[in-house]
């Protein structure tokens, strides 16, 4: 189907907030910010927001960084340098640079935008799309921007439909019959239901569309307010709901999916959620379609050789069943099931992996048995290591989640080897 010629995405800038610490992922974010965490065999989490913007027709983007940003900046520099300034295309990296006061970094999500007003002005855009850089989903932002313009709203907020009992962990929208937002409540104990569907609630996705001139005025007023926390969810959005017009945009209206598929959106902010979302990709028909050539997830692609499987004896066979194996991997005499291995993973004979998420450049020695595990980048797994069979033993050396997933980092391996 041909897209309308009067598209709004080319008149829009995408501003990606990618500075959060992501502390719930524990040691996975000790050396990298959450949007830079690996996902899906070859991607980083931030690639989903950026790819959605690119596929939607947006060619002006900025990524605001703050904590532990080196890994994220390096990834963007390697994988997202195809924008052409002569075509009026940009992707700017905006670190917190204390531009206004030496003691002030980004004080909140709204402040991250406010401190870069002059840069956004230079983009000469009509609309600004604020995105969180740490969620997994596929969405056509053009649909949301068009609804925003047609509704005449001051802000349009992307919303998920979730069971009311689960909405207590979100910012929740109370709406009328036209989806105009009447209340905005942060993690309410008793979330308001949807008119006509009281068993469900509308939860904020952290996606906002504004007219730039309108948002610019509000940001300047917010910066001058000493009582503000300078945050969209805490300050600007409630103020617009109370005194302006805020409109809800339902994710189901713009989610990119097969017609029979359920809308897919994941916050992979905990170890259990991160492991589950990666392992789900090994299903026969995964809910997240990474093979869709019409809506690709762009990223930095290393030049790697194909994956290689060697040895073929009953007790020493390189094999992978219901698994995803990235380029550069060598599976030597190892049995792998329901697992996801990133680039340049080496496994050695007589080992077995079951439901393992293995980040790049890991080496697994002989005679290991690993189950329900996440292995951080560059870890050297020693010979004979058994993880996933005795949670009490695992917890002595490694991070074991509430759901029984074990995280292994090199520091943990070093402490274990030093303590044996």
TrEMBL record:
**One GO term of the biological process aspect:** glycogen biosynthetic process
Question: EC number(s) for this protein?
Answer: 2.7.7.27
What is an example of a GO molecular function annotated in this UniProt entry?
ATP binding
Q: Where is the signal peptide?
A: none
- Superkingdom of source: Bacteria
InterPro entries per record: ADP-Glc_PPase, ADP_Glu_pyroP_CS, GlgC_bac, GlmU/GlgC-like_hexapep, NTP_transferase_dom, Nucleotide-diphossugar_trans, Trimer_LpxA-like_sf
Q: Where is this site: Could play a key role in the communication between the regulatory and the substrate sites?
A: 66, 105
- Could you tell me what reaction this enzyme catalyses? alpha-D-glucose 1-phosphate + ATP + H(+) = ADP-alpha-D-glucose + diphosphate
Q: Which Pfam families match?
A: Hexapep_GlmU (PF24894), NTP_transferase (PF00483)
* Domain Glucose-1-phosphate adenylyltransferase/Bifunctional protein GlmU-like C-terminal hexapeptide positions: 305-408
The pathway to which it is assigned is: Glycan biosynthesis; glycogen biosynthesis
**Chain residues that bind alpha-D-glucose 1-phosphate:** 106, 171, 186-187, 204
Keyword terms of this UniProt record? ATP-binding, Carbohydrate metabolism, Glycogen biosynthesis, Glycogen metabolism, Nucleotide-binding, Nucleotidyltransferase, Transferase
List, for all copies, the residue spans of the domain called Nucleotidyl transferase. Answer: 14-282
Q: Give the protein's function.
A: Involved in the biosynthesis of ADP-glucose, a building block required for the elongation reactions to produce glycogen. Catalyzes the reaction between ATP and alpha-D-glucose 1-phosphate (G1P) to produce pyrophosphate and ADP-Glc.
Per the similarity annotation, which family is this? Belongs to the bacterial/plant glucose-1-phosphate adenylyltransferase family.
Q: How does it assemble?
A: Homotetramer.
Q: What is this protein called?
A: Glucose-1-phosphate adenylyltransferase
Origin species, per record, is Celeribacter indicus
| Organism lineage string | Bacteria, Pseudomonadati, Pseudomonadota, Alphaproteobacteria, Rhodobacterales
Q: Which gene encodes it?
A: glgC
């Amino acid at each position: 189907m041909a897209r309308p010629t009067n598209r709004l995405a080319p008149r829009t800038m995408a501003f990606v907030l990618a500075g959060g610490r992501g502390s719930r992922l524990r040691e996975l974010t000790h050396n990298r910010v959450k949007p830079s965490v690996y996902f899906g065999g070859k991607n980083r989490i931030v690639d989903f927001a950026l790819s959605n913007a690119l596929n939607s027709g947006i060619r002006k983007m900025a990524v605001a960084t703050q904590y532990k940003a080196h890994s994220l900046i390096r990834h963007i520099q390697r994988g997202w340098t195809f924008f052409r300034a002569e075509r009026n295309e940009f992707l700017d990296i905006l670190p917190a640079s204390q531009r206004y006061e030496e003691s002030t970094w980004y004080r909140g999500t709204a402040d991250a935008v406010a401190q870069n007003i002059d840069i956004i002005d230079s983009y000469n855009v009509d609309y600004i799309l604020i995105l969180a850089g740490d969620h997994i989903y596929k969405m056509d932002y053009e649909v949301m921007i068009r609804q925003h313009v047609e509704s005449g709203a001051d802000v349009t907020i992307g919303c998920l439909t979730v069971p009311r009992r689960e909405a207590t962990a979100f910012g929740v929208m109370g709406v009328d019959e036209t989806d105009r937002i009447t209340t905005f409540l942060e993690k309410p104990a008793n979330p308001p239901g949807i008119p006509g569907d009281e068993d469900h609630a509308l939860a904020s996705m952290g996606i906002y569309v504004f007219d730039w001139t309108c948002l610019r005025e509000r940001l300047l007023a917010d910066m001058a307010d000493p009582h503000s926390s300078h945050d969209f969810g805490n300050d600007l959005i409630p103020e617009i709901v109370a005194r302006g017009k805020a409109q809800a945009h339902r994710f189901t209206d713009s989610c990119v999916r097969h017609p029979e598929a359920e809308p897919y959106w994941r916050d992979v902010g905990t170890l259990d959620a991160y492991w589950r979302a990666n392992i789900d990709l090994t299903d026969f028909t995964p809910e997240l379609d990474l093979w869709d050539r019409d809506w690709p997830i762009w990223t930095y692609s290393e030049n790697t050789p194909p994956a290689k499987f060697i040895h073929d004896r009953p007790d020493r066979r390189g094999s992978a069943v219901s698994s995803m194996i990235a380029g550069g991997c060598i599976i030597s005499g190892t049995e792998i099931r329901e697992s996801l291995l990133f680039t340049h993973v080496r496994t050695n004979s007589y080992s077995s992996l079951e439901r393992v998420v293995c980040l790049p450049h890991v080496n697994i020695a002989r005679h290991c048995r690993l189950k329900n595990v996440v292995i951080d980048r560059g870890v050297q797994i020693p010979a004979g290591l058994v993880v996933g069979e005795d949670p009490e033993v695992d917890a002595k050396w490694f991070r074991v989640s509430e759901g029984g997933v074990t995280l292994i980092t090199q520091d943990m391996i070093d402490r274990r080897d030093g303590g044996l």
